[in-house]
C-alpha cells in the first residue's frame, strides 16, 4: 500500500510538472507575440514623429490656406488624443501614418502649384507691361511723325518771309547806329543762307516831329540784299529834339509796307519811348508833345 501511494504521488508530480512546462511555453509564445507588435508600434510612432516634424517645418516655410491649416490642426489633435489615450493597435497606427503622409504630400503639391501659378502671373504681368509700353511707344512715335509732317508742311508753306527793320535814327543813337546797321545787314544775310527761303527785307528809320521831311526814311520790301545794305549805309543819326521820339510814326510806316508773305517779322531797335503820358514818366517838362500826339496816332 505504501509503495502504491508513493507511485501515485510520483505520477501526480510528473503530470503537474508537464502542465507547468506547457503553461510556461504558452506564456513565452504570447510574450513573443506581444513584443513584436510593440516593436512595430514603436517604429511606427517614430515615423509619425518624423512626419509631424516635416509637417511643422513645411507650415512655417510656406503659406497655406486656413482650411488646410484647420485640417492639419484637427489631424494633429486627433493624433495627440490617440497618444494620450489607450495604446492603439499597430494596424490603426500605420493607417493613420499613411493618411498623414498623404496630406503632407498633397500640401507640398499644393504649395508647389501655388508657387508656379504666382510665377506664371508675374511673367504674364511683365509681358502685359512690355506690350503696353510697346503700344505707347508705337503710338507716341506715330504721333511724333504726324506732327513732324505737319510742321514740315507748315514750314514749307511759310518758309518765305517778309522782314522789316524799324530803327530809331535820332541823334541819341549816334553811338549805336553804325553797329546797328552792321547787325541788321548780317541778320538779313544769315536768314537767306541758313533757311534757304525767299526773303524780302525792308527798312524804316524814324526820328521826331521836328525833323520835317527826314522824320521817316524807308526802303520798301526787296529781295536784293545788296540794295538793302547800300540803303542802310546812307542812314545817319541826327535830329530828335526832346527825349521821346515819333515811335508810333515809325510803326505806322512799317504797317503800310507792302507785306505779302505768310511769315511777317519786325525787328525794332531804339533807345527812347513814344510821346505822351501813356508811354513814359518824364512828365511834361521832358516831352514837347506830352498832352497830345500831333498826328493823332
Strand order of the largest sheet: 3-2-1-4
The mean pLDDT is 80
The helix/strand series, from N terminus to C terminus, equals HHHEHEEHHE
The tally of strands reads 4
Based on CA atoms alone, the radius of gyration comes out at 58 Å
SS field, number of helical segments: 6
- What is the structural class? alpha/beta
Q: Note the beta-strand portion.
A: 5-15%
Q: Helix content range of the residues, please?
A: 55-70%
Which sheet architecture does the biggest sheet show? 4 strands, mixed
Shape designation = rod-shaped
User: First CA to last CA: what distance?
Assistant: 179 Å
Give start-end ranges of low-pLDDT stretches: none
What does this structure look like?
It is a single chain. With 297 residues, the chain is α/β, with parallel strands linked by helices. The protein has helices at 2-61, 66-84, 90-158, 177-195, 225-233, 247-255, and strands at residues 161-168, 199-206, 216-222, 263-269. Helix 2 packs antiparallel against helix 3. It starts with a helix and ends in a 28-residue tail after the last strand. Strand 1 (161-168), helix 4 (177-195) and strand 2 (199-206) form a beta-alpha-beta unit. A four-stranded mixed β-sheet has the order 3-2-1-4, with helices on both faces. The protein has six helices and four strands, in the order H-H-H-E-H-E-E-H-H-E.
Amino acid at each position: 500500500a505504501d509503495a502504491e501511494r508513493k507511485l501515485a504521488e510520483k505520477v501526480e508530480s510528473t503530470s503537474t510538472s508537464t502542465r507547468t512546462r506547457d503553461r510556461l511555453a504558452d506564456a513565452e509564445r504570447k510574450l513573443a507575440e506581444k513584443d513584436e507588435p510593440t516593436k512595430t508600434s514603436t517604429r511606427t510612432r517614430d515615423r509619425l514623429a518624423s512626419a509631424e516634424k516635416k509637417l511643422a517645418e513645411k507650415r512655417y516655410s510656406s503659406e497655406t490656406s486656413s482650411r488646410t491649416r484647420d485640417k492639419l490642426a484637427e489631424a494633429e489633435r486627433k493624433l495627440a488624443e490617440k497618444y494620450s489615450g489607450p495604446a492603439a493597435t499597430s494596424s490603426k497606427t500605420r493607417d493613420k501614418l499613411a493618411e498623414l503622409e498623404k496630406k503632407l504630400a498633397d500640401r507640398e503639391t499644393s504649395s508647389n502649384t501655388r508657387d508656379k501659378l504666382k510665377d506664371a502671373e508675374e511673367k504674364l504681368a511683365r509681358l502685359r507691361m512690355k506690350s503696353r509700353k510697346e503700344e505707347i511707344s508705337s503710338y507716341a512715335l506715330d504721333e511724333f511723325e504726324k506732327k513732324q509732317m505737319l510742321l514740315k508742311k507748315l514750314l514749307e508753306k511759310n518758309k518765305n518771309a517778309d522782314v522789316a527793320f524799324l530803327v530809331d535814327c535820332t541823334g541819341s543813337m549816334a553811338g549805336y547806329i553804325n553797329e546797328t546797321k552792321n547787325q541788321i545787314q548780317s541778320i538779313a544775310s544769315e536768314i537767306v543762307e541758313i533757311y534757304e527761303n525767299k526773303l524780302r527785307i525792308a527798312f524804316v528809320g524814324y526820328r521826331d516831329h521836328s525833323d520835317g521831311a527826314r522824320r521817316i526814311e524807308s526802303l520798301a520790301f526787296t529781295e536784293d540784299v545788296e540794295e538793302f545794305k547800300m540803303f542802310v549805309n546812307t542812314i545817319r543819326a541826327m535830329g530828335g529834339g526832346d527825349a521821346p521820339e515819333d515811335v508810333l510814326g515809325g510803326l505806322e510806316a512799317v504797317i503800310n509796307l507792302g507785306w505779302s508773305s505768310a511769315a511777317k517779322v519786325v525787328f525794332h531797335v531804339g533807345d527812347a519811348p513814344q510821346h505822351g503820358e501813356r508811354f513814359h514818366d518824364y512828365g511834361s517838362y521832358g516831352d514837347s508833345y506830352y498832352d497830345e500826339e500831333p498826328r493823332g496816332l
